[in-house]
Amino acid sequence: MPNGDSPAAGAGSSAVEAARIGPRLWALFGVTFFSMAMTMGQLTILGKQVFDMTGQPLYLGLLGLAEFVPAFLLAPITGMVADRFERRFVYAWGLGGEALASVGLFFYVATDPTSVLPIYGLVVVFGTARAFLMAVSRALPVDLAPATARERTVALNVAAWQAGFIVGPASFGFAFEVDPAFPYLLAAWASGAAIGLLMLLPTSEVQKAASAAGAGVRAALAHALEGLRYVRRNRVVLGAISLDLFAVFMGGAHALLPAVAEERLGVGAVGLGWLAAAFGIGASVVMIALSVRPLRRRVGPSLMVVVAAFGLGAVVLGLTRAYAVAFAALLVMGAADAVSVFIRSALVPLATPEEMRGRVMAVEYVFIGGSSELGAFKSGVAGAVLGVAGAVVFGGVGALAVVAIWWFAFGELRSIDRFDEAAPTPSQ
To answer: Is the four-CA dihedral 341, 400, 326, 394 of positive or negative sign?
Structure first.
């Protein structure tokens, strides 16, 4: 019997067909790439610019705080908007707001400024737009993917995210050498490209939350806070996103990379750009592997192991003065973070009812934003007190301690084997 007519071959063909991703959905990966390249490239250059103007690690930490505060204050509103309106359009408006902030930064930096205060103000505008964007961007891959291809869609989306993590800092570092204002013009262009690709996506047909219009401010606020209450009740979701919050809050060293590059390694903007890109390179290699062979077993234990590897990488980064070792440490940190992001990107949406995903993703973004932006502020303060090396090592040790505590405190998360075990029950 020819292979194409055999039952095994037919079953294999059916499985491949079921796991296919529609051509319009591929535009989502382009949106993710341009959005992340713009964000990481711009933030890397902002850190370089602020450190050049002030020479103080504390001012690098304040950049993270300026981006985090809008996400924290607006979380109930952004989640409610994401659950009531077409998520593609919310995403597009968020990208448009980021582009306006980038244009503002371009014109300000072109004046050869001496004050960092307007930069912080424009970062607040950027953070406000990003708060709305992030509430929908994490939900869309699960919303739009076929049920049989969710893990692959999530893996490809995170791979695009990590590719942006590489290309953004590296290309923006070269753009800075051409002209210090040029990276911000490049960021505005990337936002525009992402908006164009968004319009190619199919409409999501997920269930929308019922509108609370006309029910009064009190009812609308209760509706908005349902996402926070759901996170508090669901121990798997709470454990997954709070692990990221505290581990990256302690171990995140990205905000101090401009200081590490200059004080510890003696390199300039191009060397800094490649250091920032190293994180994305390690992550992308892992995500390409996961897009071919997604992780499907031992999900909970794997999450905790890779977060511990992230902390170990931070310790090595803080101790070394060799550029190659620092580059390798960031490769390991990026690879570990990629597995962590992949697991959370599949686990949290699948553990959440679809009509609540926007609100839960908004709460998750506050946790994730808290881990990176508040972690940046913590790193800046620690850098001023302990020095750059001491701050990075202290953070890595702290991340390891967080993993040890969560291993025992969140047995529900540690015991998850397959993603579908986290699916919400009717009572939830």
So the answer is: positive
pLDDT in tens, 44-68: 888 888 888 887 777 777 787 787 7
Rounded to an integer, what distance in angstroms lies between the CA atom of residue 345 and that of residue 161? Answer: 12
Please write the tens of the pLDDT for every residue from 363-412: 776 666 656 666 666 666 676 777 777 778 888 888 899 889 999 888 88
Other Cβ atoms within 10 Å of 52 Cβ, number: 12
pTM: 0.65
The CA dihedral of 78, 80, 85, 89, to the nearest 10 degrees, is 10
How far are the Cα atoms of 168, 269, 316 from residue 325, in angstroms, in the given order? 22, 18, 8
| 235-251 helix and 357-369 helix, angle to the nearest 10 degrees | 20
Judged on CB neighbours under 10 Å (0-12, 13-18, 19+), 172 is buried
Report percent pLDDT > 70 for the chain. Answer: 81
Whether the Cβ atoms of residue 60 and residue 44 lie closer than 8 Å to each other: no
Tens digit of each residue's pLDDT (9 = 90 or more) over 202-212: 776 655 554 44
